[in-house]
UniProtKB/TrEMBL annotation:
Name of the protein this chain belongs to: Transcriptional regulator, LytTR family
Positions of the HTH LytTR-type domain: 185-237
UniProt keyword Membrane present: yes
Positions of transmembrane segments: 26-51, 63-86, 98-116, 128-150
Keyword Calcium attributed: no
MF-aspect GO terms: DNA binding
Superkingdom of origin organism: Bacteria
Entry-linked Pfam families: LytTR (PF04397)
Swiss-Prot/TrEMBL keywords: Membrane, Transmembrane, Transmembrane helix
InterPro entries assigned: LytTR_DNA-bd_dom (IPR007492)
Amino acid sequence: MGCRHGGIWTGWTVNNNKLIILRKTYASLLSPICLTIWIVATVVAIVAGPFGTFSVLAFLERLAFWGLISSTSIVLGYAGVAVANMLWSDDRAITRNLVGAALAILVITTNVWAISQMPVWGPEERPGFGLLMSYITLITGAASLVKYLAQTALPWAVETPVAKNIAHASPRLMRRIPDAADKFVLHLSVQDHLVEVTTQEETHLIRMRFRDALDELDGVEGYRVHRSHWVASSAVD
């Protein structure tokens, strides 16, 4: 439910924006740098066998154990980051990043501690919650530093085309399209007195002026390649 204001359901808009932020956060998992960090961390843990797993577990057991820990930790840790992204906007980036990191560390530590209670150590002592949190804090800080350096040196390796599209998934123009929550605009063109809006799924005809349609894109990056055609930069190869 939402309150209607100026012809727009504001409650729906707020929830939709949060969904977009959540999807954008998780879409960054598919970026080359995040996938590289994920794979490298998993391989290092399997080979090194920290917390006594090298002596207690065989190679295939370490593969399953650390694969489970790394995969679930990445997914759950990103949930903490997504919550911070939904609560704080870009003008409070420091607060957002600190809270996101703290939530991620807490969630990942809880996840690793719960998995470490599995009966795989035998007589070996299981690592405590505090020790795990200290190690995870160091690892998270190192991974964040690597990602930051990669963003500076290799910006193409951080953002995926999906994340780039989702970043502008809901300009005002999309509110004229039914069920537009999961759609983003790729192309606009003029058809007589109508504007044809092409999304990743289908096309829609809207009765409005082309100039007004461009105004309602709300800064979505793109190019007016002809007086009757506009193309989103994320749709260009």
